[in-house]
Amino acid sequence: MDEYTYPNGWTSGQSHRVLDLTAHSRVDDVSASHLKTELDETPAAALRGLPFNLPTNQVNPGPGPGPGLAYRSPVAPPLLFHVMTTNGSTAAVPALDFNGYILHASNKPVPEELMRSSSGCSVAEPGSVIDEESGRTYHNHTTGKYFFPNDPAEQDRLDLQHKLFKLYNDGALYRAPVKSPKNVLDVATGTGIWAIQFANQHPEANVIGTDLSLIQPPDAPANCTFIKENSEYDEWVYEYQDPFDFVYMRLVNSCFDDHRTVFKKAFDNLKPGGWIELNDATFELLCTDGSIEGTNIQKWSERMFQASEACGRDFKVPHKYKQWLIDTGFVDVVEEVGPMPGNPWPSDPKFHELGRWQMTNFYRGLRGLSFKLLRANGMTPEEIEEFIDATREDIRDTRLHFSCPIYVVYGRKPFEWETGKGVAPE
């Protein structure tokens, strides 16, 4: 198969992962009953509270599109807190508006089904805003901009997505040739699952995870610390912290106003010889046989890009990462681009399995990822709900052969002697 051709005239760069994603000769029977909705309890969060190398007898592939785990995290009593409101009852704030992206803060209690909490699993962050229209909780934009939910339902999906990326990377947490790291930073750590697993794999390393939302479990390994931070605008100052050997970022394409600011901070805070790595995706859909032409899933992709542009964020930035790292001063920069199937249509065993997981991930996350951006793009709540339902039907239709590009980009901070400022070792 030829390398993928990307629309709008841009290409990904070097080291394409070229694979024969031949479609199955039959249509998989993917029942909607096998797909959990965004508010269903999911065992994904349990990955943070269990041994990370699960015994095979704890894994139950099941008939659905994504493997389930036999262990299910218990439902804790609902955690209720007063969210910010528009009527003055609690820390009054106006509707939060960022270039048309509006959170209509509600005075309703956070729904119980969004407040699941157990040791090492999903937690709610006080100060979050529950959106009146979508019913989901979001990070308060007064301290940073993040367009997707941060509630426990989304946290569970993020943990499932972590498993998806490990499958994509053949079980590895990272690709960069990092050796014996002592100090590691995970920017936009989310639930902290990557940082926790890295800390367990490298007990000699000191791992710091930073995020706008402090939603990570309190019982992390002793060598793993979480800090609430706006990595783009806050100064990177950590107590007792030497320069880093490794800085990792995953799925940050929507997180920053200017990624180059964060890349420069990473460069300045890395040791000479230290590595940076990014794993990311876009909402762009790749299809080589025209099977998604005119479908709702194609319209969804187009509308998400339109909305993100209107809100001042470029969701296609991963294709710029390689050049931006080079411009920042990194050397030995590698870019790998490969497909993530949207459902289990490929015949290749690995990518068929990836498609099963991605279909569950996509189906579960669609409403949370889309609602506020589609609202900013001019759709009414009723139109959004109808559109999401129709798009979910496309997600589980294996006659639609679509993938999204996955970017793995990493580079090294040069030693001083490589920049002419020191003497090369003999």
UniProtKB/TrEMBL annotation:
InterPro entries: SAM-dependent_MTases_sf. GO terms for molecular function: methyltransferase activity. It holds the Pfam family Methyltransf_23. SUPFAM superfamilies: S-adenosyl-L-methionine-dependent methyltransferases (SSF53335). It comes from the Eukaryota. CDD domains: AdoMet_MTases. Coiled coil: none annotated. Belongs to the methyltransferase superfamily. LaeA methyltransferase family. This is S-adenosyl-L-methionine-dependent methyltransferase. It comes from Cytospora paraplurivora.
